[in-house]
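agent: user wants the structure for Histidinol dehydrogenase from Oceanobacillus jeddahense. delegating to structure tool.
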Amino acid sequence: MQILRYETYKQNVAKTEKATQLMQQNLDEQVLEIIRAVQERGDEAALTYTQKFDKADITSLSVSEEEWDRAFDKVKQEQPALFKALTEAAENIRQYQQRTKEEGFQFSPQPGIRLGQKITPLERVGVYVPGGKASYPSTVLMDVIPAVVAGVEQVVITTPPRSDGTIDSVVLTAAKIAGADHVYKIGGAQAVAALAYGTESVPKADKIVGPGSAFVARAKKWVFGDVAIDIIAGPSEICAFADNTVPPSYVAADLLSQAEHAEDATSICVTTDAAYAEEVQKEVERQIPLLERAVIIRESIQTNGKIIICDEEAQAIELINTIAPEHLQLMGERAEEQVEKIKHAGAIFIGPYSSEPLGDYFAGPNHTLPTNGTARFSSPLGVYDFMKKSSTIHYSKERLLDYADTIITIAEAEGLTGHANAIRIRKENNDASS
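agent: tool returned. relaying tokens verbatim.
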């Protein structure tokens, strides 16, 4: 794991951004080909790509009720501790999300005028749940439950099947606990296309949410506009700001918890103590061989793992806000004071015992978070992502006539005489009748 001074890290960022842009451009041709094929050929194209990419020779994209029920009963009976853990986590997520649910409002600034906002849940949402390198029941809970709390009429899941054509039983169990309505055996860009445009089996969604591979992220970018999306998620990220009051083993373990997601995950430690940086580096090296996904972790740490030494706390905070990390752990003795200085982060974990996996699995706040610096303008997935707002406007005849000339003046200043006429005709009609 590299140790870099602040200035050196800043110089390297621009080079990395250019490389990422080139990689995305190379992916786009393949992604657009898949999207067009699914648009044109529906299920047939989706099944072909499932066989090609997932090595699953299936004849139906849909998970049957029987298959779903068998998976649920199996986990409940054979893995009771896991079933209990998923149920408890689901309840924590529900409680948190219910507190974020907005209500509409109305107010009357003066007699005869009533203004407001009407909040309506989306009708159908598609949740993408990654597969491949790991199974992610936690993503099912995190992405389905806010939609259910919002009141979405239909929540469907797409997830890549295993090579034998099945979906992991724990994922299906989480889907039932969370309240999903249907699950489809399809992943990658083809799943995004199916949700965006619909196929014979997969219904067209109003919005697509959930993390995925680079193919999924680029596909979401290209279908955006035809369908809503949450965010264009990139690889997992963690940034830990620590000092010598925190055991280096804690910091190293948290960094590695993100590195095990994939080879392109990013793990960064920020500190103002050069000697402490070396201790964290040694601890990272000590722990890697102890973990099952050591090969993936090693590549991630070698490519994207960094310990950055800053001159002072202010510089460290500035750097963190520039990175705008997906997960930020403020672990040092001044963690509580530092929270107010953080402008950009997906989720903030405060103190040495608020380890990032707490947020991934159990605490309640969502783990679908903005990545690649998009925390500058994006938020964690939540109930608000599954609701839309309509403004409501009611003027009585008297109030409209009071302000008719004012509205006409603005409309005519813009050269929109039709707008002006729509008001004038009401004014003149009432002038004539009085």
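agent: one observation worth passing along. Residues 330 and 397 are 58 Å apart (CA to CA).
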